[in-house]
Amino acid sequence: MIIVKTNNGDRFINEAETLQVIHNKDKAEVEVWPSKWGNQPHQIQNYIIEHVESVIYTTQETKWKDEGSELETLKTENIILENRIVQLQEKLRDYGCEL
After folding, report:
1. Alpha helix locations (H) across the chain?
2. For labeling, which of 2, 15, 36, 93 is most exposed (least CB within 10 Å)?
């Protein structure tokens, strides 16, 4: 089972019914190539899921998660803010010592 998390909800893809699934992080898209469309197995066409935040591949034995770019952005922002807090704490200590 492939779970595609978007900003508008989750999409579930049965990997047994697909030829390939491509996660384009830069465009926040997932391209899905189904093995067949209904009763027309020879007219294979892909479809695109937009506004993708993350992709999770899970089986009965293992679970794999691809964290979305939004999470990476938040982690980076968190590091920046933590560094800023440390800087402000140092300035506050220096100011307290001057008094």
Report:
1. 69-98
2. 93
